[in-house]
Amino acid sequence: MKYMLLIWNRPGFVEELSEQDRVALFGEVDEIMKELSESGELIGGQALADPSQSRTVRLAGGHPEVVDGPFLESKEQFAGYLAVDCDTPERAAEIAQRWPDVRYGGVMEIRAIMDEAGPEM
Asked: What is the DSSP letter of 71?
């Protein structure tokens, strides 16, 4: 089964870390990514640019309108994702629990990726 692990973080938290903590955090991420690559579970993943560079499309006056920013009613912003192919949902949760951002107040959301047939709905 394929899963999308969505990374949610408080904007600016990385900049607040000491250089030593930043190096440690990114080292842990590199270690997890290497492990997932070697096991064949990693499908892909990317960090996202700062939320200030976001655009959102919303319905306004009956027409789609593009506005600046994510404008979510949340302290966390979508920061990136991993796509993994795991045998069980528990394995996807295990990977998410190890993600170091969580220790700094981030959140990992685990979502199953639908097959083309869509039986997961």
From this structure: -
Reported as a single tens digit per residue, the pLDDT across 57-104 is 888 889 998 887 766 556 678 889 999 999 999 999 999 999 999 988
- The structure's pTM equals 0.81
CATH number of 2-50+76-112: 3.30.70.1060
Helix (H) or strand (E) holding 67: strand 63-68
Q: Which two tokens stand for residue 40?
A: 């064949």
Residues 6+ apart with CB under 8 A from 26: none
DSSP class of 113: P
Specify the DSSP class assigned to residue 51: G
User: What are the start-end ranges of the H helices in the chain?
Assistant: 13-16, 19-39, 89-98
The structural domains of the chain, with segments of one domain joined by +, span 2-50+76-112
Strand order in the sheet with 2-9: 42-47, 77-85, 2-9, 107-112
